[in-house]
Amino acid sequence: MPDTATPAPADSGTIRILLADDHALVRRGVRLILDQQPDLEVVAEAGDGAEAIELARTRAVDLAVLDIAMPRLTGLQAARELAAVRPDVRILMLTMHDNEQYFFQALKAGASGYVLKSVADRDLVAACRAAMRDEPFLYPGAVTALIRNYLDRARRGQEDPDQILTPREEEVLKLVAEGHSSKEIADLLFISIKTVQRHRANLLQKLGLRDRLDLTRYAIRAGLIEP
């Protein structure tokens, strides 16, 4: 099957869900919430963003629920790739972070909703149904503050991290910050060690940083890894 092939639509109107979170207990709890609904069914689970992409390529799913903070690929990175390879799949971000930077990055990545884990039992089911109606979903009370902060930042001319780095540089930055060597990064991304080294040098120069520690701190601020 080609990577971009679209699996057959679901029968009986059931929304087939791909759930991705690196914590098994969280996945279990979220699955309990979703599977209790007659129109929702979790049909695939992933422990990181890269696994979620592979499952989405081959499994028949209608909706992906992605945690933002995951190893290998974050939920934001996975959402961008998923939007490219499976544009028919709706995307929801599930996160513990009440953070406007993550929220706007999620929208730019192709997500149609942003749900806080702390109120997932209240909001997640409604968010899934809204996503399948092509309607955006935000947790109550967040919209005004998020838009105000975003407009204030835009008026000040501040630039978001995802506008500074290319997708490949972001991938290299995340892996560097996770402690991988140049050889390990080269193997994971199927590029040469020299290419990895060039990306690292470009990152340091572009961001005005000095070393791996500075890159790690930047990756934490950008939401690529957890502190």
Automatic annotation (TrEMBL):
Protein origin, superkingdom: Bacteria
Pfam families for the chain: GerE, Response_reg
InterPro entries: CheY-like_superfamily (IPR011006), NreC/VraR/RcsB-like_REC (IPR058245), Sig_transdc_resp-reg_C-effctor (IPR016032), Sig_transdc_resp-reg_receiver (IPR001789), Tscrpt_reg_LuxR_C (IPR000792), WalR-like (IPR039420)
Chain positions found as 4-aspartylphosphate: D67
UniProt keyword Lipoprotein present: no
Keywords: DNA-binding, Phosphoprotein, Transcription, Transcription regulation
Annotated Response regulatory domain residues: 16-132
Ranges where the HTH luxR-type domain occurs: 158-223
PANTHER family (UniProt xref): TRANSCRIPTIONAL REGULATORY PROTEIN NARL-RELATED, TWO-COMPONENT RESPONSE REGULATOR
Name the UniProt record assigns to this protein: Response regulator
